[in-house]
Amino acid sequence: MKNFLIFLVIAVVIVAGYMLLKKSNNGGNTPDAADLESSQTNIGGKRLESPSANESGSYKVDQKVSSISLTPSTGDAVEFDIKSGELLIQSGDIVGGKTIASSSRLNKLPGFGAVVGNEIQLEVKSLVFERARSTTDNLVYRTDAELTVNGKTFPVSFDSMFRYQAGEYYITGQATPDWKNWGISLASGQTVSINMVILANK
Fold it and tell me: What does the pLDDT look like over 52-67, one tens digit per residue?
């Protein structure tokens, strides 16, 4: 009995010492569960960083890192120079933003010979997290935007990859629009996809 009591006292001292040491290492800064919920997204039991509600304002598109290109199913891709761009953020959400790009080779693309001007404009309207289609290893977002080419504007939506860091939004994706909407006729069986990479910083 005496041995059992000694063992019990030693066990209590070890557990108490461990708890005090753990608290001391955390410096009392253990995040509150509500803080985790507001800054992270839970997918399949894995927590992922998501934009803070404190993020708001105009974020400038980094012209060196960002890119827009048109890639035909046959022939070479046409890269565009980013002239200007921004994303508008409200309470952490993308609510708008316009990127203007130009290329002197735009009308060299198959089917684009009659296009007037050399600019395209991509106006991001929103970024939507597709929870039902996402897994821990494959997060799916949808970018809703408006594309202006040849003086005409129509909506486009495409699957995107999205990464967030404080003060920085990164979106990349690809869409294959129905170019007839823009008055552009492609040969039978041909497609031209638009590829977008946007990095915007506060």
Answer: 889 999 999 999 999 9
